Amino acid sequence: MKVDNRSHERVEEFKYLGTTITNQKSVQEEIKSRLKSGNAFYPSAQYLLSSSLLSKNLKIKIYRTINLLVVLYGCETWLLKLREEGRLRVFENMVLRRIFGSRRDEVTRKWRTLYDEELNDLYSLPNIARVIKSRRMSRAGKIARMGDRRSVFRVLVGKPEEK
Hints:
Blueprint: E1 2-3, E2 6-7, E3 13-16, E4 19-22, H1 28-40, H2 42-49, H3 56-71, H4 82-100, E5 103-104, E6 111-112, H5 116-122, H6 128-144, H7 151-157
Antiparallel strand pairs: 1-2, 3-4, 5-6
């Protein structure tokens, strides 16, 4: 590929912002790796997220400032399919269930985990898929404002001459 009269070799994969980008248009492996990193966070912070001494708002701040940043690192390059979006939502719901705890069923008087709809009501911030889409749009906007002198802008808006 030529950009600014410079030739760039074609590669099968490369690292960008710590993310492995492949020519397969699939981010499944990268998302699995990110979710694994997010799950590795729990042994060190499980006592914080399940503590009754901390408020729910503080627990959510801990999740958003530490865990969510680990999981979403490099997400600006992800092309999400419904399957990957679902995996990310399952991860987020798992974390939120740990934060918000169990509920007592009014009919059976037994403790149960929260349903997804209940979690959505309790967690008023944008869900993980919406955060990813917002970050992708923000990144595209930054590139679009760079102007045609920058090579990254020309790659974004350019038309390839070959497949």
